């Protein structure tokens, strides 16, 4: 079987601390058949066609049972390490997060074929939601070590949150299951969620050597320039190995509607009821709560407190298209 020619750009500009690319790596593709926008069989057929045409060795590793996603991801990483290969994740945000978590720190190149609704992570690095475009971009791509966040040791690519935001995500998913995936459905579900008066959390925030008390219905920590810029929050601090926290001051339901609309029109950063700040490590104590519901890249789980947000010590060796004009230029 033939191979593509070596990836000249990555050889001339190797990514510090990341594996190099030759263009001959066997590919181990973790594909979540239950996530994403389209037909899983069409997705697999597209992947096979492109890689067969390119003469690349590859193994498709479909995930039919979500409970097996981590096990299959770990198997893919092991094979990639043993055979000097690369791992590719195909699926929505939760799939990308799970596979990235197993790749981080293992010295294995990582690629993505995004199938989610918003694709903030992929779009930030010029990776298309169109599977054929994204895969061809991977084949001609180069390595870019990218920053990821961690919450109590667990990785997040785009954001992590607690309070109202996880509830919004849960309700949005329920509405999508019932009415289909669209931004209008997402907006309507958010409006309905806010009708239920959100509970205020009593938070103690420790960062930059100081402590701060805050009452808020939600706290969101962002690691994605595109998402932050879309809601009107400054994102330059991400270039300085920091994360950005956002919280709403205690407000009534009407004011929360106003914040939702400001976010839609990229003006959240100007809202008087919103605070935001950058940090490299943040510890969050929640008065009266030993466990709290959190959302990480859209996946909901329970976590013990206190919560510690930080920039991961290692960067993720992401393969990006050679001609991408991604936002992260750090």
From TrEMBL:
EC number of the protein: 2.7.1.-
Alphabetically ordered keywords of this record: Kinase, Transferase
Keyword Kinase: yes
Signal peptide as annotated in the record: none
Entry coiled-coil feature ranges: none
Name of this chain's protein: Lipid kinase YegS
Region (Disordered): 1-20
Composition bias type Polar residues, residue spans: 1-13
Entry GO MF terms: kinase activity
PROSITE patterns per the UniProt record, alphabetical: DAGK
Domain of life: Bacteria
Residue ranges annotated for the DAGKc domain, each copy included: 22-155
InterPro entries linked to this entry: ATP-NAD_kinase_N (IPR017438), Diacylglycerol_kinase_cat_dom (IPR001206), Lipid_Phosphate_FormReg (IPR050187), NAD/diacylglycerol_kinase_sf (IPR016064)
UniProt organism field: Achromobacter pestifer
Keyword Transferase set for record: yes
The protein's enzyme class: transferase
């Amino acid at each position: 079987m033939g191979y593509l020619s070596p990836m000249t750009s990555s050889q001339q500009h190797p990514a510090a601390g990341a594996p190099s690319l030759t263009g001959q790596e066997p590919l181990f593709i973790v594909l979540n058949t239950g996530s994403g926008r389209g037909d899983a069989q069409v997705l697999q057929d597209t992947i096979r066609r492109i890689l067969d045409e390119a003469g690349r060795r590859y193994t498709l590793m479909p995930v039919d049972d979500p409970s097996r996603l981590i096990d299959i991801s770990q198997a893919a990483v092991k094979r990639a390490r043993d055979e000097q290969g690369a791992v590719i994740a195909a699926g929505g945000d939760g799939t990308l997060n799970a596979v990235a978590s197993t790749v981080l720190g293992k010295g294995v190149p990582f690629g993505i074929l995004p199938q989610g609704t918003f694709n903030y992570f992929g779009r930030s690095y010029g990776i298309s939601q169109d599977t054929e475009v994204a895969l061809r971009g991977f084949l001609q791509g180069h390595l870019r070590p990218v920053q990821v966040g961690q919450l109590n040791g667990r990785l997040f690519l785009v954001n992590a949150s607690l309070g109202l935001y996880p509830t919004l995500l849960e309700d949005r998913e329920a509405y999508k299951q019932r009415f289909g995936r669209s931004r209008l459905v997402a907006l309507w579900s958010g409006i309905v969620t806010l009708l239920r008066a959100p509970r205020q959390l009593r938070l103690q925030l420790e960062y930059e050597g100081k402590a701060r008390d805050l009452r808020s219905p939600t706290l969101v920590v962002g690691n994605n320039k595109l998402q932050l810029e879309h809601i009107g929050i400054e994102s330059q601090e991400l270039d300085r190995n920091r994360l950005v926290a956002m919280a709403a001051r205690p407000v009534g339901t009407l004011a929360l509607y106003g914040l939702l609309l400001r976010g839609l029109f990229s003006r959240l950063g100007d809202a008087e009821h919103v605070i935001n700040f950058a940090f490299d490590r943040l510890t969050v104590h929640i008065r009266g709560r030993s466990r709290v519901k959190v959302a990480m890249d859209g996946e909901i789980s329970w976590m013990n407190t206190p919560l510690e947000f930080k920039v991961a010590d290692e960067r993720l060796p992401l393969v990006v298209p050679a001609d991408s004009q991604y936002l992260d230029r750090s």
